[in-house]
Amino acid sequence: MSVLKGISKERERRTKVHDMSVEDAQQELTELRRELFDLRLQMTRGEVRDVRQFARTRKDIARLMYKLRMAQFEGDEEDVEFVETADEDEATETEEAEEATEAADEDEATETEEADKA
């Protein structure tokens, strides 16, 4: 019986996201990201009783991001903005560091070749 309740709650969350306007979805996305941040803080303090909240919150965030992205593609709202997360910032920094490392390796290889020729 509890499985049926879980399915209906998930369906309810999906329907809620589907029926939201773009502005409401953006506001809800901001709130859910804050909620996930708070959950992480609570986890470090050992206050989280239900770890499934993490998965639910992340899935709800993904649903909202999908809705906003589809609205952007449909052209309903051209001013759809996404707030960058720390993960995206870290990915950009990692890519830049890798590019810098590759460039340094190429420079070093060129210097070695020139030294061998001399």
Describe this structure in words.
The protein has four helices and no strands. The protein has 118 residues and is mainly α. The chain has two domains: 2-83, Helix Hairpins; 85-118. Helix 2 runs antiparallel to helix 3 (52-74).
What's the pLDDT, averaged over the residues? Answer: 78
Proportion of residues in helical segments: over 70%
Shape: elongated
- Model regions low in confidence, pLDDT < 50 over at least 5 residues: none
Structural class: mainly alpha
Radius of gyration: 23 Å
Question: What's the quick description here?
Answer:
With 118 residues, the protein is mostly helical. It contains four helices and no strands.
Blueprint (SSEs and pairs):
Layout: H1 2-19, H2 22-45, H3 52-74, H4 86-117
Helix pairs in contact: 1-3, 2-3
Keywords summarizing the entry:
mainly alpha, 118 residues, 2 domains, Helix Hairpins, elongated, single chain, 82% helix
